[in-house]
Amino acid sequence: MSAHAAQVHAVDDHHDDGHGHHHKETFITKYIFSQDHKMISKQYLITGLFMGIIGILMSLLFRLQLAWPDHKFTIFEIFLGKWAPDGVMDPSIYLALVTIHGTIMVFFVLTAGLSGTFSNLLIPLQIGARDMASGFLNMVSYWLFFLSSVVMLFSLFVEAGPASAGWTIYPPLSALPQAIPGSGAGMTLWLSSIAIFIASSLLGSLNYIVTVINLRTKGMSMTRLPLTIWAFFVTAIIGVVSFPVLFSAALMLIMDRSFGTSFFLSDIYIAGEVLHHQGGSPVLFEHLFWFLGHPEVYIVILPAMGIVSEIMATNSRKPIFGYRAMVASILAIAFLSTIVWGHHMFISGMNPFLGSVFTFTTLLIAIPSAVKAFNWITTLWKGNLQMNPAMLFSIAFVSTFITGGLTGIILGDSALDINVHDTYFVVAHFHLVMGISALYGLLAGVYHWFPKMFQGRMMNKNLGYVHFWVTAIGAYGIFFPMHFVGMAGLPRRYYTNTNFPYFDDLANINVVMTIFAIITIAVQVVFLYNFFSSIFYGKRGPKNPWNATTLEWTTELKHIHGNWEGAIPHVYRWSYDYSKLNKDETDYVIPGQDFIPQNIPLQDNEDEMDH
Amino acid sequence: MTAFLVVLVIILFGVAVWQMNRIFQMARVKPTGFSEIASAKDNNINGYLMMGFVIFMYVLAFASFALWSDVLLPESASEHGVGTDNLMLVSMIIIFVVGILTQWLLHYFAFVYRGNIVRRATFFADNDKLEFIWTIIPVIVLAGLIIYGLFTWTDIMNVSEDDDPLVVELYAQQFNWRARYSGEDNTLGEANVRLIEGVNQLGVDAADPNGKDDKIVTELHLPVGRKVLFKMRSQDVLHSAYMPFFRAQMNCVPGMITQFAFTPTITTEEMRRNDKIVEKVRHINELRTAKSKELAAAGEAPLDSYEFDYLLICNKICGSSHYNMQMKIVVESEEEYQAWLKTQPTLAEQLSNEN
């Protein structure tokens, strides 16, 4: 950085906010029960990646089953043991695999692994805070997440198998062990795990909200926040609003299962006897579940949107286009996300008029989403794009978000939903729009902030390129053809479709999708190798490798508790002063440097912009 | 075909990986700046690859249509389905136009503005007019789609008594379907799972006179051209009565009665003569013959040859055998339907036979 910047930096004069004392840290307080947000963020990331590996390997198993339903696989016998005698997968373990795959990917990888990692890392660093508002609650939040992961993994080993009623665990299937073996101890553990997870998520979210509201450094007004922080902040609010509803649904389901209540059960005759339950309704559960379930997909995608906005602006060397519209659309999406849950229930038996209302609100959500997509595209326009791996994943994010989002227009339309509901069309839609997109956001974030997490070490760029291109091609290769399977009328969660000769001609498509899946999964090994080897052997880069404007890059490479050695920097501008020219338009504001960090005061030779 | 596709995909991937590897090796010769940060050369290569990627997407879409459009459902066999299919077509056209354009812009900009040392990015932070345009255009298009969609939806879901629909109950249980015809009075007898006993598997109230002439069957026959109102029940867990050929679906919920109505317009016989179905059945039988040969070689029983039939299938996860919960639907002329119905015993007859 120029001498100029160093000189301006000296303007910071406020004192250290009482964090100067460095108490001695033991191994346990530093690496295990750490209260430091940077360490907690790494704990979230590593746990999330571990869960991700399990979730994705499960998908490999059921993709093999779908492509070659009558083939015997030794790999099934190895991983599934008694559930795959002679290498033939048991139909109920197939359902368990899709259930746990969905649960792990949605909650453990894309909620905790994505939001947990980057909210923890970036909120204090980007707003100029020493740490989260409560380091202790933050630590508790991680360890509850860890505990819920352990319980979930433990449930894979119970006698009758793990939960297998689908990740949406609709009762009565999830309430009655007579209906499916996984609804015994497996489902009890599933519900316990999710209850703990919700507690973890709430502690984390409250912490994020309080931190963003109270601990911004001097000059960091809400309108100067990077979009990452806006996204994490709003995500946390949605979480606080909707997760408790899932908690109550889970609690009521536990009551129905174990204490004889009838919230969701009525008029059931199963295994030769009538159950005493009377007056409950599974539709009530669907309402409660999707009141979280739908905001949940925005809890997953909003942080990815924030990350992508930030990375895209930095690597385009341009301000994000339409900052205010980007913030407004985050808020609009957040608001609308809580009133669209009924589009999962058009044909659940609820009043068709309600279906009309939810069609209306659902299609409205396409408007802020479209604004975001156009703004991202315009951010690229006339930029000077630096094709770092993080940038490539960000561009691919916009691509999959558009492709997946567009099919949402069909699914959100109640009349069209009738015939594609619960088919593979839905599976293709949500994997592209929230699964793959959010994973791209996660990967982009890892490539971009890796130096910040691991003391200046950087991931290998060429391995990153190989990882990116194979993943990008593979992801479309899996999920684009899947739309055809759905439009052919094949329901999801079918162990095999060989009982329907009508669907025999789908075999080819299934094989193609599985081959793409195998290739895409295989190339993630490149990423894992790159990730873990770079932690130890990655080359150390400069302090601000991507020439970014945000505050996290003003900290030293070495991690210290409290983030900044001296005073916390003040903020004098928004976070998107990339390629800003001086008044005469002869050169950048700081000559020879195409970015102005947020902690640089307004210069004499620049116009103040009102964003 | 499968083997060919497998080989093709693997070869293409191999070539792609090999080429990328070569490109990156060449790129590694002269690094400028810090080696893990994208160099001008990286920007250039990845910019071109972005262009390649959007072409890959177009080719993938085109190839998918060329290879697999024959798997899509045939024309709708119900009256309202024609309207749904039109709405689907309109939505699909809009989606494809928007998708093709935006994907092109995204990747084209990524290519054209790939970074180099001399390029200077334009400080372009805001433009109210542009943002207004791309807010208002989606608003107009979506308003159109919403209105169109809601009219279609209301038409489908509103069942008027004036249509005098044939009332049929669809009854779901793990893992099969049954149908109960309402008989002469076109009114279903009351029923509850607590009344299930012996031959009365659907729990129909024997005391209810409306139930006496009800007929319970395991194969659904429908007269062509008459509106059918399905009343759906489930005795154990959630199921979903999915009739893809009629663009019809509704969940079956224990504890409540749900409903869906449609008018079948094409008989099974007519559909079997539909060009698309003829071709599809021929193709499927080819696949099955090939498969049978493999089975025969392994000493197993060959597959039956396939003939087209309408299906009712379960589309809500309902347990281990969810993947095989189906019922055949036969659409036929009014006379054939009446003749078939006559051969089915009424509930009263069944109950008296039992005693």
UniProtKB/TrEMBL annotation, chain A:
The chain crosses the membrane at residues 44-62, 93-123, 135-158, 189-215, 227-255, 288-309, 321-341, 353-378, 390-412, 424-450, 462-486, 506-532. Its main location: membrane. It is a multi-pass membrane protein. It holds the Pfam family COX1. Residues 27-582 form the Cytochrome oxidase subunit I profile domain. Keywords: Electron transport, Heme, Iron, Membrane, Metal-binding, Respiratory chain, Transmembrane, Transmembrane helix, Transport. It is found in: Membrane. The keyword Heme applies. InterPro entries: Cyt_c_oxase-like_su1_dom, Cyt_c_oxase-like_su1_sf, Cyt_C_Oxase_1, Cyt_c_Oxase_su1_BS. Belongs to the heme-copper respiratory oxidase family. This is Cbb3-type cytochrome c oxidase subunit I.
TrEMBL record, chain B:
It catalyses: 4 Fe(II)-[cytochrome c] + O2 + 8 H(+)(in) = 4 Fe(III)-[cytochrome c] + 2 H2O + 4 H(+)(out). PROSITE patterns: COX2_CUA (PS50857), COX2_TM (PS50999). It is found in: Cell membrane; Membrane. It is a multi-pass membrane protein. Its EC number is 7.1.1.9. Keywords: Copper, Electron transport, Membrane, Metal-binding, Respiratory chain, Translocase, Transmembrane, Transmembrane helix, Transport. Binds a copper A center. Signal peptide: none annotated. Residues 163-343 form the Cytochrome oxidase subunit II copper A binding domain. It comes from the Bacteria. Pfam families: COX2, COX2_TM. The chain crosses the membrane at residues 6-24, 45-68, 88-111, 132-151. Residues 65-160 form the Cytochrome oxidase subunit II transmembrane region profile domain. Its cofactor is Cu cation. Belongs to the cytochrome c oxidase subunit 2 family. Subunits I and II form the functional core of the enzyme complex. Electrons originating in cytochrome c are transferred via heme a and Cu(A) to the binuclear center formed by heme a3 and Cu(B). This is Cytochrome c oxidase subunit 2. It comes from Aequorivita echinoideorum.
